[in-house]
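Exercise 7.
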Amino acid sequence: MDLSAINPVLLIASLMVAATPILLAAIGELVVEKAGVLNLGVEGMMIIGAIAGFATAVETGSPLVGFVAAAFAGAALSLLFVVLTQIALANQVASGLALTLFGLGLSALLGQSYVGIRPPEMGQLYLPLLSDLPVVGPILFSHDIILYFGIALTAAVWAMLKFTRVGLILRAVGESHDAAHALGYKVVRIRILAILFGGACAGLGGAYISLIRVPQWTEGMTAGVGWIALALVVFASWKPWRALLGAYLFGGLTVVQLNLQAAGVAIPVEYLAMSPYIITIVVLVILSADKSSAPAALGRIFHAPR
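Solution. The predicted structure, written as tokens, is:
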């Protein structure tokens, strides 16, 4: 066992990379649930985004175009959830699970010809002076633009929910869709837009895994990240900044256990591999004492008056 081989600067920088796909998916699902909709299809939308982004980046030679394609792919798959839950008024839990299974199967089919191919590299964002700072530079100012976009998106969603009329309407729909409808708000339209936003964010998160975190395509490579993102939304009490902290906690634990394995720690690999999931859930449950933050109408079907 050689713990001295673990570089703390690289460890923290890797933590931020590992947290980004979880954060993107969690922030998208947070907006969806704030609108009163429970979409368990995050994993399916992420894996579709992963293959769509990967394939597009390989074919066009541009990772940024791949991320755009991934966002559209995630949003497109979420349209299926829209049809099932907002038009056909099907059960949201069953529809979300079906969406995940569909996404996993479709991605496996679409990705067969991309196994073993490396995508074009996504360059790191260079910030003059800041990126050259010792220790702080490599940790905070030497990452790709999507990582910073995830943090900015978290801040934007927090500001939108807290300070804007759009956020107020979204929260009103999530708390009482009947009251929102009585006030003249288009409940179904608002929920559809929220679902599409959540799908786009999940697609981006999936593409981040296949293009940056693990730059390759393998079947089922999201490996439960979508479910972790769903859990983070609940355990973070539907607060964007707490979701950010939860994503970084899980990302940190994942990176630490990989480094411990590489350092030869005398703990069975299976225990190390499952430790991030167990510790994250335990810590976030402890932190989520505020149970009143859940949208009152979460998961309830809206029957529009005729």
